[in-house]
Design goal:
By secondary structure, the chain is an alpha/beta fold. About 25% of the residues lie in helices and about 25% in strands. The strands form three sheets. A seven-stranded mixed sheet has the order 9-10-11-12-13-14-15. Strand 11 (about 125-135) and strand 12 (about 140) form a beta hairpin. Helix 8 runs parallel beside helix 9 (about 225-235).
Length: about 250
């Protein structure tokens, strides 16, 4: 499975996943023209390499570029709750993730199986996604979430981890943000993942079998790539795993 990070961070998030002849976008959080430009630079054809767009939640840094769907007639999938925060999408492109017995139903697109799962953020009905292909790769995408619970850990087991490491706790606490905003960011139910939270989750998930890890959605004000990378490396080193040998790590 090929992963292309088209945008990551507080200014916008957009990821392209491709396996064989099927490609999808996870979120479209930068303007349509930027998504198209970055796809062209990466050799991705919007007319043939995007079979669907999957939205994690309807905040601007995740949906700003959704006009791309109308232009290229791409179906958009998200939860019933998140559709309340999305406008301007042609009716025939709107697809709602169904539920059965309290879990989201699987979406099958060619050789891709997409499994939505519940996360914790201040949105209507936010989700993460696990994507499996016929080659045995499983990519797990978790952006904005205040914490990672046991149900999420079970869904996230795989070979590719695309997960936020939003803030360094010391930088946030000692930084210029208003107190109410600091509380929101650090909230388990409404906030974001700290470097430590992300490292703890990865230490539980990574088995040292060559997994690919992408640290994403870093705050430009409350984090630094070297901090996020160092904390994750230390947590995995305690498990006996070294970057480049047992897993591969990229900070986006």
């Amino acid at each position: 499975m090929k992963v292309t990070i088209l945008a990551s961070g507080s200014a916008g998030n957009c990821i392209h996943l491709q396996s064989e002849g099927v490609g999808i976008l996870i979120d479209a959080g930068v303007p349509k023209t930027k998504i198209e430009k970055r796809m062209i630079e990466a050799g991705i054809n919007p007319a043939s390499d995007i079979q669907a767009i999957f939205i994690t939640h309807a905040h601007g840094d995740h949906i700003k570029g959704l006009p791309i769907a109308n232009k290229w007639h791409i179906p958009i999938y998200t939860t019933a709750g998140e559709w309340h925060g999305i406008s301007g999408v042609n009716d025939e492109l709107r697809q709602t993730l169904g539920t059965l017995h309290g879990r989201y139903e699987t979406i099958v697109l060619g050789g891709l199986h997409i499994y939505p799962f519940k996360i914790h953020h201040d949105a209507y009905e936010p989700v993460g996604y696990a994507i499996e292909d016929d080659n045995g790769d499983r990519a797990c995408i978790v952006f904005d979430t205040g914490h990672i619970d046991q149900d999420m850990l079970e869904m996230m087991e795989g070979s590719i981890y695309i997960v936020e490491a939003n803030y360094d706790e010391d930088m946030l606490v000692n930084g210029p943000y208003a107190d109410y905003l600091k509380v929101r960011i650090m909230s388990d139910d409404r906030g974001h993942l700290s470097n430590e939270q992300t490292a703890m989750a990865l230490a539980k998930l990574v088995k040292g079998k060559g997994e690919r890890i992408y640290l994403t959605h870093l705050s430009s004000n409350n984090n630094m790539p070297a901090l996020a990378e160092g904390i994750v490396r230390r947590a995995l080193r305690k498990k006996g795993f070294e970057a480049g040998k047992h897993y591969h790590l990229e900070v986006v």
